[in-house]
Amino acid sequence: MNASAAVAPDRQTRGKSEKTRDLLLDAGIALFSEQGYAATSTRQVETHAGVRRNLMTYHFGNKEEFWKQAMLRLADRMRSTLAPAIAQSRDIEPDERIRFLIRRYVRASSTFPEMARIMFDEGRCNSWRLQWLVDNCSRGFFNAVRQLFQDGRDFKVIPDIPLTNFYYLLVGSATIFSMSNECELLTGENALDDSMIDIQADTIAKLLTVDASAKMKENG
Which residues contact 92 (CB under 8 A, 6 or more apart)? Predict the structure, then answer.
């Protein structure tokens, strides 16, 4: 048997194993965001993923470790979605750069409404999961927003409000997407339609910034 023939089964096994992990993690993200941690069982995740019983334990050891890996995957997807916008923003004028990044954050939130649902749910109690989320997911994003806020203040694009309020107004803008079912029942509008996402992104950008040039003319 040649070397390539011997390696092929190993590659197939690894590929199958990675696919199973992906299915489980995607199922976990969906269920944790819909039901919460306590109400989501190992068996429910496996059933939702369409895999055999006990495969979650086989791949992740226990429910706690599986939850952590699911949260890291969700946070990584959010970061990966924002990364091109951050790179692109380097070539944009400072005042418009702030608005551009706010709009892109809102749009990314619409792509991953599970993040807001989970954070809102876990934020109610000071549990080990909340502490883990703050240390591994929220703190890095908060520091990035802090820098954005400071840049905005330096260029007089962000109004005279505290960083804490700015941060929670920004992350709170995802509520419309995480509660899209209520929004549709209440207003008849689908919050996840592209037109609604654009409106939300533009609205939040306007609320959280000021037109520095207009303000200068007014004061002049």
Answer: 100
- b/e map 89-126, b = 16+ CB within 10 Å: beeeeebebbbbbbbbbbbbbbebbbbbbbbbbbeeee
CA distance 146 to 152: 10
- Report DSSP letters for 126-158, one per residue: --HHHHHHIIIIIHHHHHHHHHHHHHHHHTT-S
From CA 126, how far away is CA 154, in angstroms rounded?
35
pTM over 0.70: yes
Note the pLDDT of residue 217. Answer: 47
Residues 90-107 pLDDT 10s = 999 988 999 999 999 999
> Structure tokens of 81?
């979605």
What does the pLDDT read at residue 12? Answer: 63
134 φ, ψ (degrees, to nearest 5)? -60, -45
Q: Which residues contact 12 (CB under 8 A, 6 or more apart)?
A: none
Q: Over the stretch 10-25, which tens digit does the pLDDT of each residue have?
A: 666 667 889 999 999 9
